[in-house]
Design goal:
single chain, mainly alpha, 3 helices, 0% strand, flat
Length: 49
């Protein structure tokens, strides 16, 4: 039985995994997505003590 990390890395090497990686990179390149992530990081860091 393969470990979860092996299964994930195998998936990411597959054609479907590559499509998802490319889609994620395109989404992260968008300024609106970057702004939303910065706002989320700010909110989450504000919750820490």
């Amino acid at each position: 039985m393969s470990t979860i990390t092996q299964r994930i890395s195998s998936f990411l090497r597959s054609p479907r995994g590559q499509q998802l990686v490319d889609r994620g990179r395109r989404e992260l390149a968008k300024p609106t997505t970057q702004r939303k992530l910065r706002e989320l990081a700010t909110r989450l860091s504000g919750r820490r003590r």
